[in-house]
Amino acid sequence: MNTLLPRSARRLVTSVAATAAVAGSLFLFPPTSAQADTDTDADPDPGTSANATAAAVALPPAHANFDYQIGGAYTPPTGVKVVSRDHTAAPAQGIYNICYVNAFQTQRGAEKEWRDDLLLRRDDGTVVYDGFWKEALLDLRTPEKRSAVAEKVNGWIDECANKGFQAVEPDNYDSFTRSDDLLTDADAKAYITLLSEHTHKRGLAIAQKNTSELSEDRATTGLDFAIAEECGQNNECGDYTKAFGNHVIAIEYTSKGLSTACRKWGDSLSVVRRDLDVVPVGTKGYVRQTC
């Protein structure tokens, strides 16, 4: 487990991401014909594969120079070939772009942007929150609710596709571990399968964000590559490579984590260290280091 923060610890501040976007950023590619279908799928049978259209999507280049910009977009450093940005930002010109969405929890203070019945509640009616980030968890306990949540998130994925992103990073796959036992890993897998199917229909790849213990289920959930926070720090990068090969992006937040990830995985995986708040370059606290 993460020794610093709960898993899936990185979040953006939407206003920062929006205002810090680089003026003049251009879309990398226009939407393809495969990206025209925006219908939301019904909840799949958990035993079926979500990989029917996965073969058509382009994965991020393995072992590429990567930058994590979910806290605010800026001109990528020289040599960067892959970047992840919030869905409200524009993709960077001329490189591979991953689109971040907070898919399993609300943004902090954004509960009213969701239907009241889609917030996860205890028997006494109180909302369950991610304890560190104070984000409300979304209710994924029934096929109907999973489909309703997916409909909203798929709208963001449509934005990503229309802007020219090549992949999606749905955060908080592991929120079931912070749900007071109200959610299960089966709920999480059934829901992310809906997102995978829609993402592939739009011609985009989809990442597994953290949650190494579910990596072995990638064939049924339809996940294409992994974005792993602090896998060096927690000595779990190998858990991801067993499932995804070298299509793993490792993000560290400490010098020790970076050192470990570089020593063990720097020759095969994309590895970067960022500051804990993932602030844009030029902002106090900004840190970016690679192997």
Largest sheet: 9 strands, mixed
Give the N-to-C terminal Cα separation.
23 Å
Tally of individual helices:
6
Q: Please tell me the overall pLDDT.
A: 86
- Reported CATH architecture: Alpha-Beta Barrel
Number of domains: 1
Q: Which class best fits the helix and strand makeup?
A: alpha/beta
Shape: globular
β-strand amount: 15-25%
Let me know the number of strands: 11
Helical fraction equals 10-25%
> Unreliable stretches, pLDDT < 50, 5 or more residues?
1-50
Gyration radius (Cα, Å) is 18 Å
According to CATH, what is the topology? TIM Barrel
CATH C-level category = Alpha Beta
Give the neighbour order of strands across the main sheet. 1-2-3-6-7-8-9-10-11
Description:
With 291 residues, the protein is α/β, with parallel strands linked by helices. The chain has one domain (14-145, 157-290): TIM Barrel, CATH 3.20.20. It is 23% helix and 16% strand. It has six helices and eleven strands. α3 (185-201) links the parallel β6 and β7 (205-209). α2 (143-163) packs parallel to α3 (185-201). The longest helix is centred in the middle third of the chain and has 21 residues, at 143-163. The chain is globular and about 50 Å long.
